[in-house]
Design goal:
Number of helices: 10
Oligomer: single chain
Shape: globular
Order of helices and strands: EHEHHEEEHHHHHHH
CATH architecture of the largest domain: Up-down Bundle
GO molecular function, one term: DNA binding
Structural class: mainly alpha
InterPro entries: GntR_C (IPR011711), TF_FadR/GntR_C (IPR008920), Tscrpt_reg_HTH_GntR (IPR000524), WH-like_DNA-bd_sf (IPR036388), WH_DNA-bd_sf (IPR036390)
Strand order of the largest sheet: 2-4-3
Strand content: 5-15%
Domain HTH gntR-type: 11-79
Keywords: DNA-binding, Transcription, Transcription regulation
Number of strands: 5
Protein name: Regulatory protein, gntR family
Helix content: 55-70%
Length: 244
């Protein structure tokens, strides 16, 4: 599989990992039906967190290169490279698309959080806790890496979708944030309050851990509405609001 990006479009860590995994498959001469190492082993091999590795494998599964069988393992389903665009519409950044992305997420993610509060198991909750701890480490440091925090932010939202135990919803959230990664990074830049964002994530996590679906839904809705409000205000002040 080859990941192709439009000029100026950022390449996510998970997209980069898809190249590495496909290179591994080709270098080792693996064929359809052959088994890959576990997610944990692959994460260690490429020096990334397990949730990030899982996202890359999901991308390859969606592209038809891998078959991930729960309780069995990860298998090659297509060994030859396959073209995949991280964002076929990437080009000039559109404020209209930024707002459309947020409105789409507002429609979907509160319901996803509600379901995750019911369905998430200890592994899902542990992954979410680890992501919050990773974000806190970066926020508490002297050199806050916005790019790293942006990746952790998206991994947190995607991990909640994974915890919903609904693979279609997980794919929808993953696709929204991956295909529109350029707009999503612009959202983080415009919102520009990493600590506030993190504290809201912690409240959502507390509701998930408490198994409170109504609270999880409300907090996710409040979180996204806050982001939308801040960004709409900033875009309006800059005279950049577009008709959607």
């Amino acid at each position: 599989m080859t990941v192709v990006d439009r000029p100026g479009a950022p390449v996510s860590l998970s997209s980069h990992l898809t190249r590495e995994v496909m290179s591994l498959i080709l270098e080792q001469g693996l064929r359809p039906g052959d088994r890959l190492p576990s997610v944990k082993d692959l994460a260690e091999r490429f020096s990334v967190a397990t949730p990030t590795m899982r996202e890359a494998l999901r991308m390859l599964q969606m592209a038809g290169n891998l078959d991930i069988r729960h309780g069995s393992g990860i298998y090659v389903s297509r060994a030859e490279p396959r073209l995949m665009l991280t964002n076929p519409y990437a080009g000039t950044l559109s404020t209209g698309t930024i707002l459309n992305l947020l409105q789409a997420r507002l429609l979907i993610e509160p319901a996803v959080a509600e379901l995750a509060a019911i369905q998430a198991n200890e592994k899902h909750l542990d992954d979410l806790g680890d992501l919050l701890a990773e974000a806190e480490t970066h926020l508490s440091g002297h050199d806050t890496d916005d790019a790293v925090l942006g990746v952790v932010n998206m991994r947190f939202h995607r991990a909640i979708a994974e915890g919903s135990a609904n693979s279609v919803l997980a794919d929808v959230v993953f696709s929204l944030t991956e295909v529109h990664i350029k707009e999503q990074m612009a959202v983080l830049d415009l919102y520009n309050n990493r600590r506030r964002d993190h504290e809201q994530h912690k409240l959502i996590f507390d509701a998930l851990r408490a198994g409170d679906p109504s609270d999880a839904r409300r907090l996710m809705r409040d979180h996204l509405e806050d982001v939308i409000s801040v960004i709409e205000t900033k875009l309006a002040a800059a005279g950049k609001t577009e008709r959607t």
